[in-house]
Design goal:
- The chain is an all-alpha fold and 90 residues long.
- The protein has a domain of 43 residues.
- It contains three helices and no strands.
């Protein structure tokens, strides 16, 4: 049983945006280990994954990145719109 086999005729049918390839997204969840760090053709050329030792490190790294974006926008005199995560991340 999984999302793909139970979605039809459920309350979730029509919830996800049209165009989302749910099978492809589901396949990404199966990637683990060293495969997580191998560069993918669809990644932004500037993207570089940074492994975290634990969830606390992840929270700190993400907080620093958010602060850097805010600081850079202020320093460069530009407006900034961000989509931020909410709720527990781990």
């Amino acid at each position: 049983m999984n999302l793909l086999t139970t979605l039809s005729n459920s309350l979730m049918q029509g919830f996800f945006p049209k165009g989302w390839d749910l099978a492809k997204i589901d396949g990404l969840a199966e990637v683990s280990g060293a495969d997580l760090l191998s560069k993918k053709s669809w990644w932004n050329p500037e993207f570089k994954p940074i492994p975290c030792q634990n969830l606390g490190d992840f929270d700190v790294y993400m907080g620093h990145e958010i602060a850097i974006e805010i600081s850079n926008a202020r320093k460069n005199g530009r407006e900034l719109a961000m989509i931020l995560p909410v709720g527990p991340m781990g």
